[in-house]
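From the shared-data thread, chain only:
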Amino acid sequence: MPEFFLRKEDKLLKRRQFLLLSKSGERKHNKFFIINYKKSDKTRLGITVTKRVGNAVFRNKIKRLIREYFRLNKKNIKRFDFVLIIKNNINIVNTNDFFFYINDIFKKADLCIE
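Structure, as tokens:
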């Protein structure tokens, strides 16, 4: 049966983990996202969305879409810890475009198994 949620072990939760990735990890970017990543024994996700991106409703929508992408594609992502940072200029209204740009950043960082 597929999992319909992310477990605590699938997320980066501590500030220390985010800072470690920003200092010692690699970084790639595209039009809407920056990704910091580092080899790990598990695949874990961290999300950073600043207040400059939009109001709370919009920021939460972006985070929900990112978590959904991660949940659906977790088996196709290599074992890395990564943090997705959303740039200020994000103005995507179409979910398909949003998933296209997330997929693009994962391919740039060579994190996809495919």
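The two ends are 23 Å apart (CA to CA).
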